[in-house]
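The passage that follows is intended for readers who have already worked through the single-chain material. We present the inputs for a multi-component assembly, then the predicted structure in tokenized form, and finally a short commentary. You are encouraged to pause after the input and sketch how you expect the pieces to fit together before reading on.
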Amino acid sequence: MTRLHHLHTLEIRNLSVRAGGVEILSAIDADIRCGEVTALVGPNGAGKTTLLLAILGLVDYSGEIRFCRAEEHGRGAPRIGYVPQRLDFDHNAPMTVLDFFSLSSQRYPVVLGHSRASRTAARESLAQAGASHLAGRPLGKLSGGELQRVLLALALRDNPDILLLDEPVSGVDAAGEELFCDFLDQIHSASRFSLLLVSHDLSVVSRHADRVICLNHRIVCQGATTETLTPENLAAIYGSGAHLFSHGHADGHGHLHDDAPAGPDRKAP
Amino acid sequence: MDVIFSSIYGVMDRLLPFAFAEPAFMKRAILAMLFVAPTAAAVGVPLVHFRMAFFSDAIGHSAFTGVALGVLLGIHPLLTMVAFGLFVAWAITLVKGRTELSPDTVIGVFFSTVIALGIAVISAQKGLTRNLQSYLYGDLLAVSEIEVVWLAFLFLGVGVYLFLAFNNLMLLGVHEGFARSRGVPVQALEISFALVVALVVTAAIRAVGILLVTALLVIPAAAARNAARGTAQAFWGAIGVAAASGLAGIAASYSLDTATGATVVLFSAAFFAATAVARRARRLS
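Having made your guess, compare it with the prediction:
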């Protein structure tokens, strides 16, 4: 899926993040290219979410995050869409999906009604996400899969250059997961943005990602998915007990067991 | 100002041709309540969304110490009450953002420290306790015209604040990182909201007293969210419940000879109970 000319690239150079005297990320070098799905994998606490937060500018870091855009495709700072891992909000909150969309697209308070522009934008992006029927539903009453569709629709509404998805398939049933991933593929082939995806699910990664970055406080290895997700590399990031295997269930998805202690870091060529 | 108030009283005579609304002190009480209760309820909507009921309670109780300090220093207790409430709100918000303790622990520490300070001051000053009665239980019927004007300004000021900040407040209540990623100035918003809450709480103490002030913010918002589907319904519903129970409470307290603030709170509690039952019935059906 590599293309000759990338519309834009996010270049991460020598990025380090420290918090409370602990180095969470050190010397990260990576490129996130437009039109590609890049998956970020690694054990719990490896700094995956922190890397997303650094890209969003929500944590202090040293090093550089450069956004390079080809001249003919506009200029200025990139628009970054973000779908958080989970929304920890009050599930009785009196807020419909449309209310939630309008909170960030109109200046005047949503209690005075929804502007026509925010209605139209919400309707279009919900339709694109196959979630039109959810517009009037209370946000707190959506299932995990429905909520993720809504969040994705919201992120796509603002036509992002880079879309960051934190664990997009966590808390979703197998059918919802399948749907979600097909949908991602569809969006991804039709749009001109780059997608950075944090996932624990290596079967999702192997099916949908063009490139993989294996992270454990520093980059263990990165490259094209097929070349990077090798048993040796998996052992290096998750420990020697890690392997891709199929559950006996009907869903047949590979899940990674990462309960084995982390093995020695290894850098791929 | 006399001209303005006498024409307002004239309008009220026509709108409320009842015995309870006849005396001028009752008219002032009704005006004060109709400014302060909807203001408190409007602020209550994001407050409940943020689960900050305990915070507003702590600010309410800090007023006790603010009044004691005012009497001790010979400054008007209303001024020291508001100033001290703002100070405590600012301090709690600042400390909360810089420790890893949970918010309710931070508020609990401030709450008890402030009350202890108040009790220490009062116990050293004999004869102060009588002064505190009207602050503990509220003294709506003694509200002056100038206080009504101040409450009207508070009503307008909070209206402007919510017009500008409401969407961002609700977004922040859903997910902080998500709100930040959309450019919401989180810290400025948290501090400004804490100060607005402190201002509204200390103003509402005049109406219902320290012990009940949180009810004025929390109960209408909680009642409305029982019945509401969307944010607009929750917001206007809370304001409607506040205004209706304010008026009904004043009327009932006049004929029953009960404390005004407490009667108003009982009416909004009745709204809460009714909407909670209706919600349950709707879910079961």
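Commentary: Residues 145-174 of chain B form the longest helix (30 residues). Chain B is about 85% helix and 0% strand. How closely did your sketch match?
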